[in-house]
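User: Modeling request: complex.
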Amino acid sequence: MMDKKIDCLVLGGGAGGLAAAAEAARHGANVVLLDREPAPGGVLDQCIHHGFGVHRYREELTGPEFAHRLVTELERSGAEFLGKRFASLVDVKRRRVSTLGPSGYIHFQPSRVILATGARERPFGALGVPGFRPSGILTAGVAQRMVNVDGLLPGRRTIILGSGDIGLIMARRLHLEGVEVVAVLEQRAIAGGLTRNVVQCLDDFEIPLLLQHTVSCVHGTSRLEGVTVGEVDRQGVLIPGTEQYMAADTLVLSVGLIPDNELVSGLVPTDKATGGLRVNSQMKTEIDWLYAAGNNVIIYDLADWVARAGETAGQFAAQAALGESPPPDSVPLETGANIVHMVPTALADTNAACLLLRVSEPIANGSLQIEGLKPRPVARARPSEMIEVELSEEEISELCKRERILVEIVSHD
Amino acid sequence: MVKIAVIGAGVVGALIAREACKYEAEVHLFERRSDVGWGITKANSAIIHAGFHDTPGSVRARFCQPGNQAFPALCEELDVPLAHCGGYVLAFTPQQKAELEKLRYHGECNHVEGLVVHSPDEIHAREPNVSPDVRWGLWSPTVAITEPWALSIAATENAVENGLILHISEEVTGLRVDRARVVEVETGRGAYAVDIVINAAGLFADRISAMAGVDFPELFPRRGEYILLDRRLRGFVNSVLFPAPTRKSKGILVLPTIDGGILLGPNAQDLKHDAKGRVDTTSSGLREVEKGARKLVPSLSFAQRVKTFAGLRPETVQRDFVVGTTHVQGFLQAAAMRSPGLTASASLAPWLIGELATAYTLERKASFQGRRKAIPKPSELDEDRLHDLIQRDPRYGHVVCYCNEVTEGEIIEAIRRGARSIDGVKFRTRAGFGRCQGGSCSARILQLLARELGADTRDVPQNEPAAWIVSGKARDDG
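Assistant: Request completed. Predicted assembly structure:
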């Protein structure tokens, strides 16, 4: 079969990919967007709760509504969508992407590729918890799909392990569906998800959040019957004598999302801290023709930011594909005190850029210090909530004169 | 016509049943569980041993090396994966070196070919991640790996094509013996007049034996815990790495799996006679596996862990197989198939059925057709063949399990071939076997099973019927 030559190929039809494809097409590029699912929308379609679009559309939307807006933008942009199509191979040398779908293989030779492959959930097996392996243990995302898309309930009495946002949202969802939610267990001393989710999903329904607790053993040979729950110290080590049995037929896991970059594993450099692809402020990876946007770069807290990252990637990928702007030089951005995650990892000399940061320890009051710029005040920063920093054209051109840029957060508590 | 009942559809029973189908006989295969290969077969190291571990003169030694030699043709006929990766027994001390020499001697007695002791440089050339402290390695080129569950599935499928009557979810509850001759098999569903019963009941072989009034050595489960690492680590180890064996077992190994993962384990905990369901893992056991594996390969990263699990091996104090005829006419043993039971099954099955054929003057069945084709795997086909396959059935182009690139076509074919549960699909296609452990595909496979079987999703289990997945409908006011 002949290779299909296009300007931009976007892999993944979630918030990042939809926004990227639409933006690239608006810049005049010939764009194809692929997804493994029949229809675009990605994980948004199972997120029937509110809280989407506040930044992008100045409206509070549900996930499917947010997806619908993005899909409408896509349709107007002229980008082509192909569903049920799985990208199986990226050949970096030949700049070729092989994809499989019900009509067979299609090989693309795109000028630029935007990877918007999102994230996957850390599975139970990866935790190495001892005990039996009964049915009734599932990730929060699977539970969400079952309940919200397929209309099925995964059990009658559940414990939720991990307090990531999807876990918190599913605690509420399952409670509202009549499932008894015994407790949410969190190994760390603070919740993993957004504060607003702890309040709106747990506190409002009197669902207990047990901090510094974990599951230490699984019981039940066919279906889950219960779990042993114990307290852990600050290092996450089980404290002897604290273990108790809790009956439950379902264990829902929200123990972390992992940027999904299997397709380019070993081909494109990733960031040790985020586990995502390293990108500059144009969302270009360290491979010249590959761009990336979304949860495969860093686990975002809001889909709005994902869509915005997608737009950035779409714009610069399209301009590069059309030969409009030569890629500018980038200056490495380095994380210093109290910053655990930062995107991008390099600053390109363009007219605007946005830094997204996560603190490693919560602070009430402090300042963000970007080497070479005036400090900016930071109030109430928590690891679960991203800090967004806009850089102006003047600041960027100032920073781009440096060899490297150190970014730190200093506490004034 | 002679009626043969095989009890237990693990790899041993399935291969025996298939072998029996080569003759003019009515062959029944009884399995108490809901699918084939769900006992010992599905949770072991999946190694085709060379035969140097077994004491010369033992029953194990008698069947292991010939089994190893029989495997390539068997896997070729049944279209089951087999990889001749070779194996090393690693020695770190002069005492362990002495063990190596003993194994080499045993191997030579057992007709194992190609055994050679390698220096650290030779070992590291092949296995750069083996501990720098290693001093000698016994290299055995005939060690191989396979997928035992795939073999039991393939053998059963092929046997059914050749006339086998398969009884799934049908536990044998009694045997009737009349004048020292087995005459009937009783199950929860009925009674079957038989001439021959072959006991391949794995952990429950003692119970079946007792039903026939035949003594059996005390059979106890030896639990082995395993850790599976991501196939992203493909190539981190290339061959099966054994430590020098202890009196009890072959020790904790590090080995590749057929689909590119790395398997660590097993430890060896002897459980009580009645603990035959204890496939739970323990924190101490998993730590033991980590420690044992690190002795051989210190740089292993457990962050790449995909899953942990435990399997049970059927052990006796004699530490040997119990096979062949008994004082009850027509009642034969294929039992206590502890390691290297998987390897030995390939030579035991033809031997056992050959003996029966002679004793009962069974005629060869002219219509027997021994070749079975595996479910096509688009991820392993070249593009032209895949194109033809998709032309016939576009569902082979629709990927459902993203980690292992398993398509809707494969899943539907697995259901057509007998999968009735999520695990049934998993063991036939590897869907859900990958790093996300079914996170993205299990809900879709549930829907496909319900659709293809015309069942309510509430009635589709993970494996056994009691392992339900769906409790009810959401927003169900009724």
